Amino acid sequence: MAVVVIGTSTRSVVMELYGNGDEREASSAELVSCAHELRMLERSLLDHAAQDVRWPGHASDTQKWIASWDKQYASLGPCGSLDTARKTLFRLRERTVALLHAHLRQNLPLTESIDRMINQIDTRFGSVAR
CB-based burial of residue 33 (10 Å sphere; 0-12 exposed, 13-18 middle, 19+ buried)? Predict the structure, then answer.
């Protein structure tokens, strides 16, 4: 029994240190390409999320960019040693989308209320600078 545990522990250490061979599947050009795509996907995710927080209320647009982002993510080629970054980026996507849904559910009514009050002033006294 102790041999199996030690063997499993050793295998885990070796896998952590040297990987499982996926790194050899991706050429250096593929790694550079993957790094570029991961960076672009991260920026796209965060930029779109920021827009949705700033200008909420366009759920159809949100669903479109999320679907487009997911297609781009799915089309990534081999990432080898960047596979952990790839998985982490998807976790960031999941958390960001959950945050957006919570924001829309909880804060959109507040934003709409503020806009209605300001629009009343616009109507009564003229345009308020934005």
Answer: middle
- The residue with greater pLDDT, 66 or 6, is 66
Q: Is residue 43 part of a domain?
A: yes
Model pLDDT for residues 10-33, shown as the tens digit of each residue: 445 444 544 444 445 678 889 999
Query: Which structural domain range is residue 20 located in?
Result: 2-125
pTM: 0.68
Note whether residue 39 is domain-resident.
Answer: yes
CA 114, CA 123: separation in Å to the nearest integer?
14
Return d(Cα 119, Cα 31) in angstroms, integer: 52
Spatial distance between the Cα atoms of 77 and 31, rounded to a whole number of angstroms: 9
Q: How far apart are CA 130 and CA 122, in angstroms?
A: 11
